[in-house]
Amino acid sequence: QKEVEQNSGPLSVPEGAIASLNCTYSDRVSQSFFWYRQYSGKSPELIMSIYSNGDKEDGRFTAQLNKASQYVSLLIRDSQPSDSATYLCAVRVPSGGSYIPTFGRGTSLIVHP
Amino acid sequence: SQTIHQWPATLVQPVGSPLSLECTVEGTSNPNLYWYRQAAGRGLQLLFYSVGIGQISSEVPQNLSASRPQDRQFILSSKKLLLSDSGFYLCAWSPRQAFNEKLFFGSGTQLSVL
Which residue has the higher pLDDT, B113 or B101? Predict the structure, then answer.
C-alpha cells in the first residue's frame, strides 16, 4: 500500500528555535515531494517542493530529501508564532499511468513566544 | 492567471440528503482535477481524480461519486449522505502531464452531516 507517514505531533518549539518536521514514504518509485502549510479551516498552501536528493533552501525553510532512505524533512529556522500550523507532506506516487499526490496526516507545529 | 473556484464554503445537511459540490478552474486548459476530503484532525484523503472530460478514477469506495462534464468543471455528488461524510472537502488542480507540479487548491467546503 502506498503510504506517506508523518508524526502527528504536536511539535512544540520556542520562538527563534529550529523546527524539524519529518516524513517517510513507502513507494520507492515516488517522484516529487512537497511540503504544504495548513492553517485551521483553510486550504493548504505550498511551502517547498523538492525533486532530487540533498537540501533545498528558501528563506527560513530547508527541505531535505534522501531517496535511498525514503525520507523527506522540512527545517524551519528562527521559528515564529505565525509558523504555528499543520504541515502536510505530499508525495507524487505512481498509479495507473499518473503520479497521484498522496498526503501524510500532517504534523501540528506550535511555536510559543 | 489561473484561479480555482469552489462552492459552497460551508454546508449543513441532514443524513440521507443528497450532495453536490462544484469546482471550476479558470485560466488553464486540460487540467488534472482532484477531490480530497479531510476529516477533523486528519490528513487529506484522495477521493477522486480526473485526467480529462468523463475520465474519473476513484481511490476510495464509498457513497460518493464525481463527474467532469466540462474540461474545467469537477463535481462531487452523493445520493444519500452519511454521518461519516462530514469533513472538509477540497478541490485541486495541477497541469496535465506534469508529474512534478504542485497542487493548486480551492478554498474548501466544510460539510457537516447531522
Answer: B113
